[in-house]
Amino acid sequence: MSGPPPASWAVDPDQAGARLVQDGLWRLRIPVGWEQFDHVNAYAIEHSGGILLVDCGTAGDPSCAMALERALADADLRLEDVTDLIVTHVHSDHVGLAAELRRRLPITIWAHPYDDHTYSVLEDPQGTYERRVELARRAGAPEGRIEAFATVREELEGISGIAKPNRPLLDGVEIDSALGPWRVIETPGHSPSHVCLVQPDHELAIVGDLLCAAYIIWMEYGWTPDPAGEQRNSFARIAAAGPPALVLPGHGRPLGEVDALVASHQAEFARRLGLVRDALIEGPATAYEVADRAFGAGSAEDVLAFEHLGETVCFLRLLTREHAVAQDQDDGGRNRFRLTADPAPAQ
To answer: What percent of the chain is predicted at pLDDT more than 70?
Structure first.
């Protein structure tokens, strides 16, 4: 599930730009139409045949492709220099232009093969919509919010088509570049298709939406047994990969002090997991009621409410698998959750 799309996909290409990270590596700042965040990062990496492009921004309006080209031009690069597109994960702001680029260029696309969480929407929008309606109802979402939570417009509008990979990004795969090989680490949770790219010689990691200056609350549910458990394990996996001296996130500036950064994400994850568990001290509740108790989802605008609900569903799944919470179903078909004991509030 992805939630409501932006009011407009149009962007101002003049807001696009490039910053040199180090010789052979550029950060491309590409504007997007979302109100919650105003840009996504792509990365241009030199290699013997041209440029490796990591992520590419949304589609949805001709100005989106113009912004990508403007960012490349700011690095004195051309779209035609791109030989390979590497996708950190299959969400619209990272893969939106991929199919358009494939139509325009003879590129190789590298991505994780588990992309059904996004591309199934393009293959069967009505079926996906109906499934999302059912998921939202079982989570206890009020009828007035079902449409906002179930919409498939983000994928249909913000993605230029299905762009299946030529080369799968799986653990241990290496991609050559002028900086040396980049090694793939699978890091699901935020998305089942999420990967990070680590360059050990220069102590760099491109981390998509795994790490950022501020903790990102979104986790994809409905596709894997335990997205929150996967997210927690992915923090540990990137920490065990060096950690790198500098991480290059999907949004915001490059970040150092990676040990502290990972630790802060782990601590915030644990805090929010505790809030979800502690919300059940008040008594059994649906996921939507828990999200309201823990994060104020009931009074939040639709996009944030949807994020809180998704996060809560994922945390409840983890707590259920850890036997801290039990799940029942009421007469209306809604899942209700209760503590299996009477623990003290999480510290």
So the answer is: 98
d(CA 59, CA 26): 21
Neighbours of 183 (CB within 10 A): 17
Cα–Cα dist 326/117, whole Å? 26
Between residues 83 and 302, which one has the greater pLDDT? Answer: 83
State pTM to two decimals.
0.95
Look at residue 64 and tell me whether its pLDDT is greater than 90.
Answer: yes
Number of domains in the chain: 1
Position 282 in a domain: no
CATH assignment at residue 53: 3.60.15.10
Backbone angles phi, psi at 259, to 5 degrees: -55, -50
275 domain-assigned: no
Identify the pLDDT of residue 342: 54
